[in-house]
Amino acid sequence: MDLLQYFDQSSMMALKARRHHLSTVVRRHFDSVTHYGILKGFRVPQSEWAELVSSAYILGTYEVAVCAILDTLKGGDRTFVDLGGADGVFGVGLVEVGAFGAGVVFELDSNRRQAITDMVTERGLSGKVAIHGEATAQFPDVIVKKGTDLAECVVLCDIEGAEFTLFQDDLLRRLSDCHVIIELHDFLLNDPVARETAVGTLMRAAERYFHVHVVKDGLRDIRNIPPLCDLSDWDSYLLCVEARYRMMSWLWLRPRREGPLSSKDIDAIVLDYQRRIFTE
Description:
By secondary structure, the protein is an alpha/beta fold. It is built from eleven helices and seven strands.
């Protein structure tokens, strides 16, 4: 290992250690309860894979662009559909705090699925949140069989690259009355050609049925987050780091019955949400 590699690895270890320390401090200070944003009031469970950034849930900065969009779509008469439930923060939390009236969570991993099921039971949400295994192209059938109108569903997808296989023409057509938010993981695809073309192919397919908008992470306004006011700029910005492979992007598929949005419109949604939640 040369000197540059040593400093690269050692500095990253130091950053992760500091980030974990800050998350621990925030979790203890707020007793694990989210204090800002659409998940306000949700007690954040210990995470088996993302504890490093648990403070971002509590402070309301985690995937803030997605939260801002969900805030415009929430409603007690709507069902939140979570493809890739992970720790259940969105799939369970959004229902528990009343942002959505019901939830349907799909999670491939059996251990995570059981943890979400346990959380639903412990929080008295068994009648409101349903848990299922892998989300296949037939997942809308599960929802319809429950008597739920797909037009009243908001779908969030985070399935680590499988989105490019899942969202084919037939499924996109069936979901055309829904709002669908898809986290993009083209960088995880092994085939270099697929990495270059997957997003464009998905966008073109979706454009047959939706207004398609690209939403990019990074638009944060941390000036008015109360707990950060007395921290150094180092710690303030580090608390907003989500420890990702790279800056993430999402596709927001909006039903054609609604008018299109410009990139400035979407930026305004994200910024206005942050300015509002941190001053309420």
